[in-house]
Design goal:
The complex is a heterodimer of chains A (299) and B (289). Helix content of chain A is 32%, strand content 20%. Chain A is α/β, with parallel strands linked by helices. Chain A starts with a strand and ends in a 12-residue tail after the last helix. In chain B, the strands form three sheets. In chain B, strands 10-9-8-7-11-12-15 form a seven-stranded mixed β-sheet, with helices on both faces. Classes of the chains: A alpha/beta (299), B alpha/beta (289). The interface between A and B is large, with 40 and 34 residues.
């Protein structure tokens, strides 16, 4: 039985990754799961300098999911290289570094700092809905997405994944723009912008007022967008949005994803990543699937 | 000490006060749990994703049991209130750092709790009082036989506090748990409506009763903790405050539950510490609240 998948020449032992921002750099979840089993660890977004993030409350639960407005708090690339990358070197898993910034030069700065580091791929976050500058501003406009993708590709020594926002009119158009600008792969979906109001206290549930919706509530939207994006481009698609078990992962693969990522469900079940891997294998055994790649886009 | 998520049996549950429940669960998490730590408790209802952070009220190592005293505040805790003996409940833990008991050594300790911040102080008072009862001053931390540690090659001495006083703040005369504190510490009560003890807050009760302390351990609502921080600063008393915030992962990965600190936090170095892992108990001096 083969679960190996390949994206831009990088071979992953299985298609299961962690969704950026839900798994730190793996340290906190290494108490629960053997990181060696994961296809890849996708780290929390890192900028060129430390970011404080947003005021609290930063998280709120909603029906079937959660809203977050963390605001990309991160220690900056220096600490990240010294601590997080060093930690991940111990494991036999691929490392994908999620990169965030407020300006194109911020992103380029981080990409260049990583050029001689043991990293397998870069994921460029142009889709975080919770920071005022940068991030989603690059992900909701074809021209801006094209420009930042080209600029990053100019400087990157590693294959580049552009992480797309669902908060757009046409995901196919954004996917095509990323591909045309040289992206090696795309990942989607980031969170969907939402809002919750505490009617008893007459206040927004989040200090940021709006936040990104994630969890099982967004899965049908994510599956639809992965389907549309993967049919619009020839580069690999990494699918995510509410994946909780093996069947969910298979659903994204059937929609056209080469790999998948587990996000908010890590908070519900710290063993979610390895449960998804086990679930995929169980599915393959049950239906006599020899190679996971046979399932991609079968619908 | 590794954390885990596990389904555990409920040993008992009862209504302790209006909207406040008292649940004992059987789990080997009790073997290493410390006062001031908490569990993430998951509702079985799958439309709720996140664990509810609930402080550990008491640890019973002999029965491998933990006591959770919690207030029903939403649909998740309302579900927990329906659990009965023999039901299984899903928990993750033990989370957080717990109270630094060693800071109580030889000191006059004042435990200050407000509302649903009172339960974790019961386990703390029990543990501190056990040190006194066990001859305190010469009691040593037991190391497992043959255990070696480069960080801790000698067993640390845990000495008993000189005295323990609990100052408990309630809304009204429903002074849940206060009788249980009597076995472990002196107890002083403040109520908002003045029906029992001092009318007002815990600081008022401390002043009215002339309580002198060298160390404060506190848990309660943020306005109370702010007042305690200011009071401790003014009096030159060390204070350790247990905070709460909306949490998601509970294990330090999501950075959802941070608090402002005066010192660089261990994760991002931006003075935003994670309450779930760097806390929930902080040195008041390190907090910018």
């Amino acid at each position: 039985m083969n679960t190996q998948v390949e994206i831009a020449g990088v071979k992953f032992k299985n298609p299961v990754m962690t969704a950026s921002g839900t798994f730190g750099s793996g340290m906190e979840y290494s108490d629960f799961v053997d990181l060696n089993r994961l296809g890849a660890v996708v780290t929390k977004g890192v900028a060129n300098i430390p970011w404080e993030g947003n005021p609290t409350p930063r998280v709120a639960e909603v029906y079937g999911g959660m809203l977050n407005a963390i605001g990309l708090q991160n220690p900056g690339i220096d600490v990240f290289i010294e601590r997080d990358l060093k930690f991940l070197e111990q494991y036999d898993t691929k490392v994908i570094v999620n990169v965030c910034g407020k300006s194109v030069s911020d992103y380029v700065d981080v990409v260049e700092r990583l050029s001689d580091r043991k990293v397998d791929m870069l994921e460029i976050n142009v889709s975080c809905p919770n920071v005022k500058e940068g991030a989603i501003a690059f992900g909701q406009n074809v021209d801006a997405l094209t420009q930042i993708t080209k600029e990053i590709k100019k400087h990157a020594k590693h294959p580049v994944i552009m992480k797309l926002s669902p908060n757009v009119t046409s995901i196919a158009e954004m996917a095509k723009a990323a591909e045309a600008a040289g992206a090696d792969a795309i990942s989607l979906i980031n969170t969907i912008t939402g809002m919750k109001i505490d009617v008893h206290r007459r206040k927004f549930a989040l200090a940021n007022k709006t936040g990104g919706l994630s969890g099982p509530a967004i899965k049908p939207v994510a599956v639809r967008m992965v389907y549309e994006a993967s049919h619009a481009v020839n580069i690999p698609v990494i699918g995510m949005g509410g994946i909780a078990n093996g069947d969910d992962a298979i659903e994204f693969i059937m929609a056209g994803a080469t790999a998948v990522a587990v996000g908010a469900m890590n908070f519900h079940n710290p063993y979610a990543t390895t449960d998804v891997i086990d679930g995929i294998e169980k599915y393959m055994k049950h239906y006599g699937v020899e190679d996971i790649n046979e399932l991609r886009g079968v619908v | 000490m590794s954390k885990k998520k596990t389904d555990v049996p409920v040993l008992s549950q009862s209504l302790l006060a209006d909207g406040i429940y008292d649940m004992w669960i059987e789990t080997d998490l009790a073997d290493s749990a410390r006062p001031g730590q908490f569990l993430g408790v998951y509702p079985a209802n799958k439309v709720t994703l996140l664990p509810r952070p609930i402080s550990i009220c008491e640890v019973d190592r002999e029965r491998h049991a933990l006591r959770l005293v919690y207030r029903v505040v939403g649909s998740g805790t309302a579900e927990f209130a329906l659990y009965q003996r023999g039901d299984y409940i899903s928990v993750i833990g033990a989370l957080g750092n717990g109270f630094p008991l060693e800071k109580a050594a030889g000191k006059r300790v004042c435990l200050m709790g407000g509302g649903i911040g009172i339960p974790p102080l019961l386990g703390l008072s029990k543990e501190l009082s056990a040190q006194q009862g066990a001859g305190g001053l010469s009691q040593k931390l037991q190391m497992p036989e043959g255990a070696t540690s480069t960080l801790n090659s000698k067993p640390a001495a845990l000495t008993a506090p000189k005295s323990i006083t609990s100052v408990l703040g309630y809304r009204d005369d429903d002074t849940f748990l206060s009788a249980e504190f009597d076995s472990f510490s002196g107890v002083v009560i403040a109520t908002e409506d003045g029906s029992v003890g001092t009318k007002g807050n815990v600081i008022g009760a401390v002043k009215e009763n002339g309580i002198e302390a060298d160390v404060i351990f506190a848990c309660g609502p943020m306005p109370m903790l702010r007042a305690i921080k200011a009071y401790a600063q003014e009096k030159g008393i060390k204070a350790y405050l247990s905070l709460e915030e909306r949490m998601a992962c509970g294990v330090g990965a999501c950075l959802g539950c941070v608090c402002k600190t005066t010192v660089k936090d261990s994760h991002s170095h931006v003075n935003n510490a994670r309450i779930c892992t760097d806390g929930p108990v902080f040195d008041a001096e390190d907090l910018d609240i």
